[in-house]
Amino acid sequence: MRAHLSTSLTTVRNLGILAHVDAGKTTVTERMLFLAGATYKRGEVHDGTTVTDFDSQERDRGITIFAAAVSCDWAGHRINLIDTPGHVDFSDEVERSLRVLDGAIAVFDGVAGVEPQSESVWRLADRYGVPRIVFVNKLDRAGADLDSAVESIRRRLHPAPLVVQLPIGREDGFAGVVDLVRMRSLAWTGGACEEGEVPEELREEALRRRRLLEEAVAELHAEALEEFCAGPSISARTLGAALRDLTRTGAGVVVLCGSAYRDRGVEPLLDAVVAYLPSPLDVPAMRGQDGAERPADPAAPLAALAFKVNSTATGRLTYVRVYSGTMRKGDTVLDASAGRTERISRILRVQADRHTEVDRAVAGDIVAVVGPKAARPGTTLCAPGSPLVLEPPGAADPVVSVA
Ligand code: GDP
After folding, report:
1. Which ipTM value was assigned to this complex?
2. Ligand 1 closest atom vs CA 64
3. Residue 61: CB partners within 8 Å, gap ≥ 6?
4. Are strands 161-163 and 253-257 parallel, antiparallel or unpaired?
5. Per residue of the chain (403 residues), what is the pLDDT tens digit?
6. 10 Å Cβ neighbour count for 96?
7. Is the model's pTM score more than 0.90?
8. Ligand 1 mean position to 89 CA, how many Å?
């Protein structure tokens, strides 16, 4: 079955998951895909059947070596997850993936907090101006503590962590969160995520933390400050809008918590991706090396950046981020880096463990294409009549390619 990739750009989120090895990136990704209905078989990391790690070398080694892009749909939004390796030896690949992201989730272990590797990936994301939200994972583990994880974030990564949840229960008894923006509780029991009133015994603590959140946001956001001063409190609507603005400008970083081991434990994370992280229209336009902007407009001349090349049974798959224009099946495009024209013979949307063939991909999309023979990570594919080489935002040096 053929389909168009016709999602409106405002409802697209291109994001990566950044983490220290073992923080739970694979498990969190897998749970997100599962909740968003994109997976058919449910995998666990330890038996080597998770969805994002579909390369056999990865399965053998049990670490995420090669980036893969996977799409899923949540609350009317298309979420394209670009897998970024966490292992420090593969930082070139981390860097290449960062160039095509509009936003990221940084996952931390609730026991270990910020670790050296997470710090170096965080700095790289700073360099590329990637807006982030934080997910403190594994709150079910013995010794996990949200407050000390947040303190290590404040000390080592960002001066303004904005904690939007209060955990319900500790360690083994971790059973949900209070959403401090809406002041509702979300409890995951069995397979359900039940929303309800804030439990009586947590009400005082939740109000205290909500106040701290309001103070932190008011300090950074003019409109929120106005409401804060007028009192008695900032509305959920203004608070949500302020958190979105602060995330997108990098002035603050929203912190959520949970456990990928709880069935619906990453549902609020998916909601936060939609609410706070930017769409392709909310980030600065990509520029060519000539300095001219390439708007995220399907009607503009084509400009796409390759960030990953894989040899698979389907053929040579080149993963591209389309920045400008529309790429159609059968089109002849210019590989501006190699100076040769190529035919796009197939366009594939990668959903978990299957590929769906589509007729076209428009600005903002991330797809895999078959046809280009010389494209490498960092190659620009463009309309032959409008040649250009893309200059990724923040890129100070040339892309390092692998053969
Ligand atoms: P990655 O290296 O960051 O991709 O981490 P993985 O997803 O492979 O997780 C590392 C280990 O932590 C695996 O054994 C997971 O089963 C385990 N893990 C992941 N999430 C959680 C969690 O929320 N709670 C607990 N207790 N363990 C987790």
Report:
1. 0.98
2. 4
3. none
4. parallel
5. 344 444 588 999 999 988 888 888 888 988 888 887 754 334 444 444 454 544 444 444 333 333 357 888 899 999 988 877 655 555 666 677 787 889 999 999 999 999 887 888 898 889 888 999 999 999 999 999 999 999 999 999 999 999 999 999 999 999 999 999 999 999 987 677 789 999 999 999 999 999 999 999 999 999 999 999 998 999 999 999 999 999 999 999 999 999 999 878 899 999 999 999 999 989 888 888 888 888 899 999 999 999 888 877 667 889 899 999 999 999 999 998 889 999 999 998 876 556 778 999 999 999 989 999 999 888 999 999 988 888 654 444 333 332 2
6. 24
7. no
8. 20
138 annotated ligand-binding residue: yes
137 is in an annotated binding site: yes
Phi-psi map region of 2: left, alpha, beta (phi>0 left; psi -120 to 50 alpha): beta
Of 309, 308, 267, 300, nearest in space to 75 by CA: 267
Ligand 1 centre distance from Cα of residue 27 (Å): 6
Q: Which of 18, 21, 22, 89 has the most ligand 1 atoms within 8 A of CB, as the residue to mutate?
A: 22
